[in-house]
Amino acid sequence: MQTPFFPTPHLQLRPPTNIKELPLSDTPPNYAPRKGLSEAEIREMVEGVIKDATLEEKVAMMSGRGFMESMQRTNNRWGAEPYQAGGGCERLGAPAFYFTDGPRGVARGNSTCFPTTMARGASWDCDLEQRIGEAMGKEIRAQDCNLSGAVCINLLRHPGWGRAQETYGEDPYHLGEMGAALSTGIQTHNVAATVKHFAVNSIENSRFKVDVKVDDRTLREVYLPHFKRVLDSGCATVMSAYNKMNGEYCGQNHDLLTNILRGEWGFEGFVHSDWIFGVYKPYGAAAGLDVENPEPIYFGQNLIKSVKKGAVAPSVIDTACRRILTTAYKLLAAEDPFEAYTIDMVANEEHVALAREAAEKSAVLLTNNGVLPLRKSSNVSVFGSLATIANTGDHGSSTVRPPHVVTPLQGLSTYVGRNLTLAGDETDLEQAAAAARDAEIAIVIVGTTADDEGEYIPGNLSTQSETSEEKSAENAGPLGSGKDRGGDRRKLRLPDHQQALVDTVTENNPNTIVVLVCGSAIICDWADKAGAILQTFYAGMEGGTALANLLYGEVNPSGKLPFSVAYSEADYPFFDPDADEIEYGPLHGYTLLESTETEPMFWFGHGLSYTQFSYRALKARTTAEGIDAEVTLVNTGDTAGTEISQLYIGFPGDLVYRPNKLLRGFERTTLALGARKTIRFHVPLEQLKYYDTSTGTWRIEPGTHTIHVGGTSDPAALLNASVTI
Predict the structure, then answer these.
(1) What is the mean pLDDT of residues 513-533?
(2) DSSP secondary structure string, 528-577?
(3) What is the pLDDT of residues 696-714, one digit of tens each?
(4) How far apart are CA 492 and CA 565, in angstroms?
């Protein structure tokens, strides 16, 4: 049976040369893990390792190693080989963790490339997300890893954030439910899932230096509840963020890592840093950071010296090792769903079909004047250079290299049974205009690529210890390539050349379908010119196939926006990609729009279908456990379809300020033509509370609570009821 907790033979790590020779016995104790260990036996094994390991060996377990060597061997190919990311003592048989990244799949080999996390957020499908997690877990194990960085749930405060594509959206409740589903799926196969980046990490370009100022209520009510939800679901590990919070780097922030995470939430797993410069001082260990990844830059010998000088207590080292080892032994003791995890599990037919299903469920039909769905016999012309490229998202640490990618043009050609060619692109508008006039239907593919947004990787990077935090932050990052990559978007509209193409084609053909490929929101002030707008996000390896199925009605669009799309950049919170310091307030997205009475172009939760749905007879009541609500959903259109019903709660707001309403439930329902179903929601009391800063406790404000239910957050489209608590 494969056990990926240990390196493959060609990757066996030599003991670091800086660890002193020890007068040890010829036959040291063997604490190798095995299946079926009880909790008591696990504790005994862990304590045995801690007792018998030297200080040097214990500190070695508190950092990754082998990453930079691997990058050099593989020509800077991220994730090409497993590398140790904490734990491991070969002399004693203690297990290690081997890390792979990838919110849209496994960043190893030629793995299945799913739609990006934001795309899957638009599915609002927790069952689907758990199945994707299970597929990732299989592929992780089959490729000799056991620690996954796939669960990214940083809140989308502003759509310009470069890594927006790696998270699920703007709402904390939605983030928590989707992240918990992915984590649960991954850990089904005894892979430790990591939830990241902890916390208030919503700017990319200045991520190594920006200090996010946030008050206690905002932190706990807006920026942390989704992390707690994922951890409460059983997620094994946490990755700290690069940025500062209230003056201290998150990777060495005692309030965040110890007071809140361990003290308030009772988290018992381990915390590891983000890769390179996730911590700056050995005291990060005392603050609650257990592992520095991917190399011992500030831990390692620095941490050993700090212990010997009395600056860091030996108990800190033991506690960190205890968390790391307990997590590893628990996973290894659990029975595996499969006897062996083999390479033929990677990007197999089942997983490719799952990627296609995710792409189909994630697409959001923003507008449609009746041009969709298309007839197979329609004379179709395709426009835009993005129609012909494999555009699956960011090229940073989330990169997945699938065995194939179906482009939009390929998917459409395959479906209609004839070879479609690009009728026009951004370089020749006269040709595009002529082709648009000649076509019955025009399909324009526009949006962004990894050149426009994604993980920001500065070209002046260094992995050498610096003499000051400031110098390190300025030069931080994984690799020194000499060329900047990715970053935040400074413009929320289409690039000028793409906008010119959209204008040209729509002016010459009223039956123009605009397909948006992007990480988050694009302001569409041209929306009324298009016959239809379909947002597919970065749709993964099967995106082209899914696109054809959606446009031609083989699949009825069912996605809903996981963010709000404003008319103007000014309608979003202040955002500065170069900020040294920024304040995060309690309002953003739909909560900000409602509070300022600003009508967006598209509300959070918006999405059309080829059929119509009606909500009727909303009822709500209080119970000892919370609020129960039910509503009747009816398919009133002319075809089967899927609706995402959303429940929001409005609060009394007399004692403390609260947003007009907050999402507290959602459910996907598929109904045949004319069918109806009673949708039931339960909102626990915990979901009604606010954080009382005067007492440091969570409280329910007595009074009238309003229940809003519908297929969008748009106040005008919701049924309302009220209860008194």
Answers:
(1) 97
(2) GGSSEEEE--S--TTHHHHHHHHHTTSS------SS-B-SSGGGSPP--T
(3) 999 999 999 999 999 999 9
(4) 10
Tokens of 218: 């905002």
C-alpha 172/C-alpha 155 separation (Å) is: 7
* 3-state secondary structure (DSSP) of residue 345: helix
Under 8 Å between Cβ of 522 and 493: yes
| pTM for the structure as a whole | 0.93
Residue 160 has pLDDT above 50, yes or no: yes
Classify 322 as helix, strand or coil: helix
Percent of the chain's residues with pLDDT above 90: 88
DSSP 356-417: HHHHHHH-EEEEESS--SPPTTS-EEEE-GGGGS---S-SSTT----S----HHHHHHHHHT
Residue of 125, 274, 394, 425 marked active site: 274
Paired tokens of 691: 């954080």
* Topology of domain 45-344, CATH: TIM Barrel (3.20.20)
- Strand ranges for 137-277 from DSSP E: 147-152, 192-198, 211-213, 237-240, 244-245, 248-249, 270-272
Taking only the tens place, the pLDDT of each residue in 314-345 is 999 999 999 999 999 999 999 999 999 999 99
Separation of CA 26 from chain center: 48
Backbone angles phi, psi at 684, to 5 degrees: -65, 155
Q: Minimal CA–CA distance to 356: which of 167, 176, 554?
A: 554
On the 0-12 / 13-18 / 19+ scale of CB atoms within 10 A, 344 is: exposed
- Token pair listed for 585: 């307030």
Q: How many CA atoms lie within 13 A of 102 on its CB side?
A: 35
Q: How many CA atoms lie within 13 A of 55 on its CB side?
A: 17
The CATH code that applies to domain 611-724 is: 2.60.40.10
Asked if 310 and 320 count as a contact pair (C-beta separation under 8 A), the reply is no
The tokens describing 415, both together, are: 């479906």
Cα separation, 350 vs 357, in Å, equals 11
User: What's the rounded Cα separation, in Å, for the pair 661 and 355?
Assistant: 34
Three-state SS at 479: coil
Lookup: tokens for 440: 């019955």
Cis amide bond preceding 473, omega within 30:
no
With a cut of 80, say whether residue 11 has pLDDT above it: no
Residue 277 has pLDDT above 80, yes or no: yes
Please answer whether residues 347 and 106 qualify as being in contact, where contact means their C-beta atoms are separated by less than 8 angstroms.
Answer: no
Q: What is the pLDDT of residues 44-80, one digit of tens each?
A: 999 999 999 999 999 999 999 999 998 889 888 888 8
Predicted confidence (pLDDT) at residue 630 exceeds the cutoff of 90: yes
Domain 353-454+487-571, architecture per CATH: 3-Layer(aba) Sandwich (3.40)
The 3-state secondary structure of 16-37, one letter per residue: CCCCCCCCCCCCCCCCCCCCCC
- 274 catalytic? Reply is yes
Domain boundaries, the chain: 45-344, 353-454+487-571, 611-724
User: 119-154, pLDDT tens digit by residue?
Assistant: 999 999 999 999 999 999 999 999 999 999 999 999
Residue 700, CA atoms < 13 Å, CB-side half-sphere: 15
Residues 571-614 pLDDT 10s: 999 999 999 999 999 999 999 999 999 999 999 999 999 999 99
DSSP state of 608: B
Q: What are phi and psi of 96, to 5 degrees?
A: -120, 165
